[in-house]
Design a protein that fits this description.
Length: about 500
Amino acid sequence: MTVRTRVAPSPTGDPHVGTAYIALFNLCFARAHGGQFLLRIEDTDQQRSTAASEQAILDSLRWLGLDWDEGPDVGGPHGPYRQSERGDIYRQHAEQLLAAGHAFRCYRTPEELEALREALKEKGEQRALKPADLELPADEVARREAAGAPSVVRMRVPETGRCVVDDLLRGPVELDWSLTDAQILLKSDGMPTYHLANVVDDHLMQITHVIRGEEWLNSAPKHKLLYEYFGWDMPVLCHMPLLRNPDKSKLSKRKNPTSINFYRDKGFLPRALVNYLGRMGWSMPDEREKFSLAEMQAQFDIQRVSLGGPVFDLEKLSWLNGLWLRELDDEAFLDTLQQWLFNRDHALKVIPHIKTRVETLSQVVDKAGFCFGDAPAITAASFQHDKLDVEDMKVWLQYLLWSLEALRQWDRDALFAEAKALADGEGVKVKDFLFPVFVAIAGTPASFSVVDSMAVIGPDLSRARLRHAIEVLGGVSKKQTKKLEKAWAALREGEADQGTDDQ
């Protein structure tokens, strides 16, 4: 048997370090067994998936040196490797399940589903919705079908009992069938959910080992049941421990930079980041902390993975990156510095904004250093203003951060539109609203346009600097966060209502 593993990211945002973490372990496992590693794009979420996000995933994984044998850009005998291009395959398999009685068409409306859940809650039943709850009488199904009502395809699942799932790291894991819902397999728009597409693709692409995050462990019973329904052998499952924030919560961009691009733009070496991700829950036989990708592959044993949630510590990563930097000779260090600090493409984005603001080249560093180096050194005193309150500024920064975390199009016009809408909602001039943003991004309100600045340095560094500025101003407590989230959501609803009124 040839070992075949895969990583299957969704192109719905910035390339996540968690994707690189899972890709690294899949790659090392495949190479340690003389096998193959695939990349598949799971873009069934058509509203959120973008070509730009897909390209960012490919570029960031390649930057890390995590190359794949088959994928959407390199091809292979089991393509297409984008799920959006495999719709007919999924529909055929959904019809196969329907014909065999393993699935059913569900015409329940969202309101009916909510009512069913409320009824279970009132009866004190802590269980998922089952086919018996969801299926309608035949005459009602016929009536809704004739009326053109939307429907989904759901799988049949047991109502009671236990499902035993074998995990490569945990051994047999028992899960309660009562908590497993009649999962939607095919949505009303004809697109598959993750669960159907994942099982069908892994089988057709001959995946032998599924190494994924432990958040998917609770879904394993559904996947095991689908393999049984289709009469296929199930791949070996291995659920990796989740990366954690220092407070042990799941790694999230609200508490830690999670984009691979952030670490590239901050000047971390790809080999250092790969080295660090390799240490996340795994260790070399000799316990050394510094090792290359090639060394990890040569020594890789999946059984050395620890199930304790590994903490992603930026200080530890920085220390490790320093070790790799000091290993470079002077020429290599200078070449690496030039490629990062004055990357030609990046520099050309900055020059139009500073060319008219300097009289000598020596002034460039002062005027645009924040575009090339680390975050500017700021303190609470940096935000002093004759008319603006510090607490108000902190709230504005938090509102803007949340809005920019949801922003899909990152350019100056989109950035300004977000700031302007929030300023209008707060009843302040956009110039005043942007004052603390200037300080957060450039360290001074005297920089060139801050929306141009954010467009140049990109979403990852921009959002990181806004987070840092909020902490410099005292941070936002959990209690305050809940209150502000409600107020921010109300502002967003007001923006949407205004947009409707304007049409």
